[in-house]
Amino acid sequence: MSQKEERWERERKEIMGRVEKLEKEGRDREERMMGMKRSVEEVVERGRSSKEENRMGELGEIQKREVWQVGEKVEDLIRCR
């Protein structure tokens, strides 16, 4: 091989090495981003679930009060007779 060909081959290998390194960094970055995206989605879903649970708890409390009030009215009606 001539010196020119050797130099060209060496530069090509260097460039290919850099390309592979950048591709690996890109894959690693993409994997981290996907992991962060999954984490964010999990947090959002937990928040949504918590809101729904709180809402259901509030509805349960309202229903308990309404039942209690109806019970008091029935007791009042019974006492009046």
Automatic annotation (TrEMBL):
Region ranges (Disordered): 26-57
Domain of life, per lineage: Eukaryota
Annotated protein name in UniProt: Uncharacterized protein
Species classification: Eukaryota, Metazoa, Ecdysozoa, Arthropoda, Hexapoda
